[in-house]
Predict the 3D structure of the following.
Amino acid sequence: MTFLSAPPGTGIRFRRMDREGKPEIEARVENVIETNRSTTIGRGNVKVHTVEHILATFAGYGIDNAIVELDANEPPIADGSAREYCKMIEAAGIVSQPERRDVFTVTEPIELQMGETEMALFPDDVFKITCTSSDKQGRFTQFFSVELNPKTWERDIAHARTFCFYEEIEYLIKNGLIKGGSLENAVVVRDDAVLTTEPLRYPNEFVRHKILDIIGDLSLIGRPMTGHLIAVKPSHTANCELARLITAQMRKPLVVAQTFAPPPSPVRNVGATESATRDAFPDSATLDTMQVMKVLPHRYPFLMVDRVTKIDGNKITAMKNVSVNEPYFQGHFPNHPVMPGVLQLEAIAQVAGILMLKQIENIGRIAYFMAAESVKWRKPVRPGDTLIIDVELTKARGKIGKAKGVCLVNGEPVSEAEVTFMLVDA
């Protein structure tokens, strides 16, 4: 693994040197595809597992832009803490960049409850985490509170190691599923005994590692932030869901502004805009929410695309983070939230529309959904899922377009359809 400096605006990116084309995955919550025991980000069929310790290290030191090069699908785990990563950064040094940091300040409380996990984030002038952790039987209950800055990060959090309870990993050990795991890179709790190759580094090392994980997972919002988080029994799944809720609050002012702003006038001077449009939507481009809303006329609560991750000729890949706060979950269904299949179909149509509307001659038009064929819904989509929408434009003649799309969650198809739409003047 190698850490590389990066120019302003890059963010944190993971580059797979062992894959053809050296694909990169941006460390954003939109790219999270798995949260079972660690946080995994992915794009298409390229994944990077256990990114949270690396991300926590960058966030702890206040590093906004860096590239992590890897020759495998997971960073070296080292001793299960962030200690070795800190040594790498301290050896290389940190450089200030001229651009002003875009710090997000939490504006109103955010609350989340998932199973035994409870999290509440409140406005504050600093970034502070107060955490309580314990196992399901209430053993080894620990508490710690820290105001995060580079000094407290390195002193109070960075050296806390991964820990696990033996009964939770016994099956994995017996079946050879964690061959790289040992007391060299994790603390194991068996009954009331703490198994480790060295004494605990902190009296409350377990809860401090939970805070380390929180720091890494919340950095997936893509910006530094201020706020006071109170967490009880946190998990990677809950951390990432909270990151999605924070991202939704970050976007709220933009949604309001777009809602009350007058619609843009149709652009008819193609010659004057051709160069800018091509630069904005080249093949292999990624579009964030702001750029998506410049293409699609849809707005909350009917915008079904959070981000476009790839455009390649007549193919496009986009993402929709299905938050528990989606308005339709109130009635579909109470106590059993499931994303309506017709909205997955709408997501396919919107992504197909982006592919048509990026063409210069279609600037200023609207894509009307006309028909759907070969529609299949295979699995329910629930809160916390990340919907990956793959669409291929199969026909584009005049104002009529046809496309074939599939929605996936964790790499498995949940719905598919062939859609037809027509472009009309706005």
Remarks:
- The longest helix spans residues 236-260.
